[in-house]
Amino acid sequence: MMKNSSKSPSSARSSSSLPRLIRNLDAVFEPKSVAVIGASHEPNKIGHVILRNFLEGGYGGEVYAVNPNTPDVLGVKTIKRASDAAGKVDCALVAVPAQFVESALKDSISAGARAAVVITGGFGEVGNKAGEEKIKRLALDNDLALIGPNCMGVLNPAARVDSVFLPIYKMGRPHAGGISFISQSGAVGGCIVDLAARAGVGMSKFVSYGNATVINEGHLLRYLAQDSSTQAVVSYMEGVKDGPLFMSSAKVLTREKPLVILKAGKSKHGAAAAASHTGSLAGAAEVYSAAFQQAGALEANSLEELFDFAKIFTLPSSAGSRIGILTNGGGNGVLAADAVEAEGLQLAEFSARSMAALRSMLPSYATPRNPMDLIGDADSARYERALQIMLDDSNIDVLVVIVLFQTAALDSSVINVLVKAAQSKKKPIVVVSTGGEYTELHRRILDGYGIPTYPSPSSAMRAVAKFLQYAKYRNNP
Amino acid sequence: MMKNSSKSPSSARSSSSLPRLIRNLDAVFEPKSVAVIGASHEPNKIGHVILRNFLEGGYGGEVYAVNPNTPDVLGVKTIKRASDAAGKVDCALVAVPAQFVESALKDSISAGARAAVVITGGFGEVGNKAGEEKIKRLALDNDLALIGPNCMGVLNPAARVDSVFLPIYKMGRPHAGGISFISQSGAVGGCIVDLAARAGVGMSKFVSYGNATVINEGHLLRYLAQDSSTQAVVSYMEGVKDGPLFMSSAKVLTREKPLVILKAGKSKHGAAAAASHTGSLAGAAEVYSAAFQQAGALEANSLEELFDFAKIFTLPSSAGSRIGILTNGGGNGVLAADAVEAEGLQLAEFSARSMAALRSMLPSYATPRNPMDLIGDADSARYERALQIMLDDSNIDVLVVIVLFQTAALDSSVINVLVKAAQSKKKPIVVVSTGGEYTELHRRILDGYGIPTYPSPSSAMRAVAKFLQYAKYRNNP
Fold it and tell me: Where are the domain boundaries for CATH 3.40.50.261 in chain B?
């Protein structure tokens, strides 16, 4: 079935294969069966790590190991080629040298593959344009949703799909959650996924899309727009492969969910580095920024911001923008008030009822005001009472709760207090905690409950500002 | 011996007791003996935590436990008052209620105390101005270097001095190192010290100075200027207690070592919060910034920056400002190039010799250029050869080495490579690593060796920019 053999990816857009390609991304993220092509005995080989991920990670579908030179790998009987599989191969995971990729893909298509993830490098990025063009035609002719080549793989924690070849002890895998992340750079992708795993932040889909020969950011955004388990999308990109497709997909997506982009290669030297890295036509920072804004996408300026912004979008949207701040450390409250102003946000004025209620519950040496300093001897019960008052105050739209876990008076039960408050869904709540091991542990628990935590008042307020910016856009795109 | 009973702290400056007060800070940071006044059996009481810190922390001097109501605490025979001590009491650590503080200080002075750390609150910050004035007069009349009241204590890891009352399992204690930190807020102080402990960053002195009734930021800066184990000073402040003393002390200090300040209460609401927190006259952000600049101090804009900037100043100073970047992740290199431009820094141009040397050692698919992408399959040996070339290149002044520890090719031996390069002292080296648990562990080792590490290219470049700014100031104040 030959549908589209055009050379420019943008012409693929108008062909009938676009919806099919996007539909076939199902087989990338939720394959019914996979074939690991290049399955290997060697622990450091890509074809070993990926096979192990599927065998030991709890994946529920059929796993085929393809290797013509050995009878079995990791206890699985091998087949010589994908087309020897007993059943259909839904997705091919390709880790053989570049010269064998085309025939591996042909075999996989014969075996029924709707998708392929080609980890193998050695194509356009090293000058092998002909090789890359061949696999592109093959894929487009067969509506094969091909990710890569020259990529780091795909994660879908909910479906136990893990074709990322970085060892698990070096790069952690996050639990299932609402954030999806598409990255042009495998390295940057791995860093952020690893951060998410460590921080207890859940992810829906992760994909490193490498050379974007067939499937590019535009297809992925369109797919994620309709993916019900994706609440927010973050993206690292050096350049856009197909401008019109990107713009239309981003617009469709941002009507439903936020899109946060870290655009690299904005500077002169950065653009030159990007050209040598992924061959991207980077630069023209203003052009990109204008396009992102038009598409309703939010920009991050660093890896920290990309991660910090992603986390906040699992919260329910907020109608207003008046911030209430609660703290057990006075200095941290002062910094939070400064950050509210620095981000152009608005400090809430507590209602008269809240002021009276706070006055009656606070010790004599604490004064009701915003930021509300509960004082260093605050225990969980004091947090609980103050939180209740602030949740009930219609003058407050968003709650920023600073918790210094280091104080003697506060024990881990404050976690339950915060989770209960968040689960009331009355207001978006974010938590700020700065510190070491004990604090990190508690932050991780909160993040695991879907309460985004931040290491400082300023990083929290930056994220809150983006959160409110998107809420405004969504209400009035 | 009555020397100075003036009411305004600034008038103390001109009196003969200023040098003596500053000299007596020795007894705060390196006391020959301490008396814990208010030693307690109760694990959550301040007088228990502090006594335990001194008994179990390896402190080498004499420790007296003062409590008139019990024969012993934690196995130490108590005395009824400090003046009952068998030997001299060099420093009194006071944790009794406010109404008993004055007599405790009198007893301590009788016992020979040159210094006191008064943890106890309930003075000026709650309206008890008279009580605060009394202990101030007493201290000034006797050249008692009094820290506090209403403070969180003092740390000197090298001397095993630890009067911080936050439990060790909640707030870690850093190992001995070159950074000293003075904080007006105990809470912010605890957060940063805890961060340092977790990150493997060493500290020289930490002091939470609370109400700054006698000893204020000016005295502390003057003391730290001449403290040979302090390489850099960081400070959190909401207001300055004694402007002229602060300015003269800061100028003396910044001629020798860097001073990084996080000034809170810069915004309207932040200033109001600061007034209610430490009674500081905050606000007038521009006035403070101008004064800091005049004094040669560097400003940080967030807790992260305060910590990030502090770390870099344990490196030897740099004569030039041309940055060389090494990476094993292309995308991270692109972000680093962007960050160089964003911070107004200069990307180095490799010498012809370096270009030739790199070309001959790199695999065919890597191109010599700055940022130098060693590619994801780089091992420690490739890092070592590239580092050597860049250390020898006189076109490069500062090295920013990005290390993705997640790759299969790289093992922990890259730590030795980096430590060897840093110990050659040819150039300042900072490391950038983004990731989770495995990455954090390796960053901690590097920080412990005095190689500052950063979680992203942008945070690293911000710190490098401050580093170069100070080098410039010091060469031409």
Answer: 168-314, 322-475
Residue type for B104, please? A
Q: Which CATH superfamily is domain B1-150 in?
A: NAD(P)-binding Rossmann-like Domain (3.40.50.720)
- Residues of chain A falling short of pLDDT 50: 1-16
Q: Which residues of B69-95 are buried (b: 16+ CB within 10 A; e: fewer)?
A: eeeebbebebbebbbbbeeebbbbbbb
Quote the pLDDT of residue B251: 97
**ipTM above threshold 0.90:** yes
For A334, the closest of B238, B301, B333 (CB atoms) is: B238
| Residue of B45, B170, B447 to mutate, testing the A interface (most A Cβ within 10 Å of its Cβ) | B170
Residue of B409, B420, B352, B434 whose CA lies nearest to B387: B420
Question: B332 contacts in A (CB within 8 Å)?
Answer: 185, 187-188, 191
Assess B47–A contact: CB distance below 8 Å, yes or no: no
* B:389-448 residues touching chain A, CB 8 A cutoff: 404-408, 434-440
Tens digits of residue pLDDT in B35-90: 999 999 998 899 999 999 999 999 999 999 999 999 999 999 999 999 999 999 99
Q: What pLDDT does residue B44 have?
A: 83
Q: 3-class DSSP state for residue B146?
A: strand
B136-175 residue pLDDT tens = 999 999 999 999 999 999 999 999 999 999 989 999 999 9
Residue of B nearest to A126 (CA): B365
Cβ contacts of B367 on chain A, cutoff 8 Å: 276
Q: Given CB atoms, is A379 within the 8 Å cutoff of chain B?
A: no
**Cα separations in angstroms, A135 against A15, A105, A116, B196, B303:** 18, 8, 11, 51, 50
Give the pairing of strands B91-94 and B33-37.
Answer: parallel
For the B322-475 domain, the top CATH level (class) is alpha beta
Give the model's pLDDT for residue A316: 87
CA proximity to B173, closest of B159, B186, B190: B190
Distance CA B211, CA B205 (A): 19
Under 8 Å between Cβ of A202 and A311: no
Q: What is the CATH number of domain A179-314?
A: 3.40.50.261
- Residue A86, chain B, CB below 8 Å: the answer is no
What lies within 8 Å, CB to CB, of B409 at 6+ separation is B328, B376, B377, B378, B379
- B contact residues 228-287, partner A, Cβ 8 Å cutoff: 236, 238, 262, 264-270, 272-274, 276-278, 282
In which region does residue A456 sit, left (phi positive, over 0), alpha (psi from -120 to 50) or beta (all else)? beta
**Between 3.40.50.261, 3.90.180.10, 3.40.190.10, 3.40.50.720, what CATH number should domain B168-314 receive?**
3.40.50.261
Give residue B5's pLDDT.
Answer: 38
pLDDT digits (tens, 9 = 90+) for A429-477: 999 999 999 999 999 999 999 999 999 999 999 999 999 999 999 988 7
Point out the residue among A49, A172, A187 whose CB comes nearest to the CB of B437: A172
CA distance A334 to chain B (A): 5
| Under 8 Å between Cβ of B201 and B181 | no
In A, minimum Cα distance to B168 occurs at: A406
CATH 3.40.50.720 occupies which residues in chain B? 1-150
pLDDT above 70 coverage of chain B, percent? 95
**Among A187, A264, A304, beta carbon nearest to B376:** A187
Cβ–Cβ contacts within 10 Å for residue A258, how many? Answer: 25
Domain with CATH 3.40.50.261 in chain A: 179-314, 322-475
Q: Quick one: pLDDT at residue B11? A: 42
Q: What is the CA radius of gyration of chain A?
A: 25
Residue B281 has pLDDT above 80, yes or no: no
State how far residue A333 is from chain B, nearest Cα, in angstroms: 7
